[in-house]
Specification:
With 194 residues, this protein is mainly alpha-helical. 62% of the residues lie in helices and 0% in strands.
């Protein structure tokens, strides 16, 4: 990726976990990028044999958090670089999740609630922190009464049961979204073909 034009910067290191549009920000961090790349490849090698079927959203988020931790350790003497790369990766994961969630169907009020819940969940999730996904989903959930108002239902509804149902289904759907992002992270070009 070297050139002679005024906009080109010679790059001696390619770091696949950093999107192409952000790589030039780190042109003076060659040594750190090599370490981050090594940490990323080590993480990929450790994660590829792990099962994906039946894995919960919490386990998948923990695996992604391990990547973030490994990148931070790789450049332990350069906290700014570690945090900058973690921020970029987190934002790419967040926008990827938002894109996947935006394509979810909304033909029923329950599916609308799940979609709203997941949109809020992924907008605020911290990929660098240990979280309780069920708690975060509950905190992201819209008020069930507002959901039923859209439906125009006058019948007696058990709001606690409705919240439990939406939480359970949102956790299942969030696992599907995270699986897609996780598989993308394990690919040779995580941000290609978005």
């Amino acid at each position: 990726m070297s050139g002679k034009g005024p906009d080109s910067t010679p790059m001696n290191v390619w770091c696949p976990i950093i999107p192409a549009e952000n790589i030039l920000e780190f042109s003076r961090q060659e040594k750190g990028l090599r370490r981050i790349t090594d940490a990323y490849y080590d993480w990929c090698a450790a994660m590829r044999p792990k099962p994906l079927v039946g894995t919960t959203v919490g386990v998948l988020l923990d695996r992604i958090r391990m990547l973030m931790i490994n990148m931070g350790i790789a450049v332990g003497q350069n906290r700014e670089l570690a945090e900058a790369v973690q921020k970029i990766v987190s934002e790419k994961l967040r926008t990827g999740a938002a894109s996947i969630v935006s394509m979810m169907p909304t033909e029923s009020s329950e599916k609308k609630a799940i979609k709203k819940t997941l949109a809020l969940f992924f907008a605020r999730v911290k990929f660098t922190r240990d979280i309780d996904p069920a708690e975060e989903i509950r905190m992201s959930m819209p008020d069930p009464a507002s959901l039923l108002a859209d439906q125009g239902s006058d019948s007696q509804i058990d709001f606690m049961e409705l919240r439990r149902s939406i939480t359970k289904k949102s956790l299942e759907e969030s696992a599907n979204v995270i699986k897609l992002l996780y598989v993308r992270l394990l690919s040779p070009d995580p941000w290609g073909n978005e």
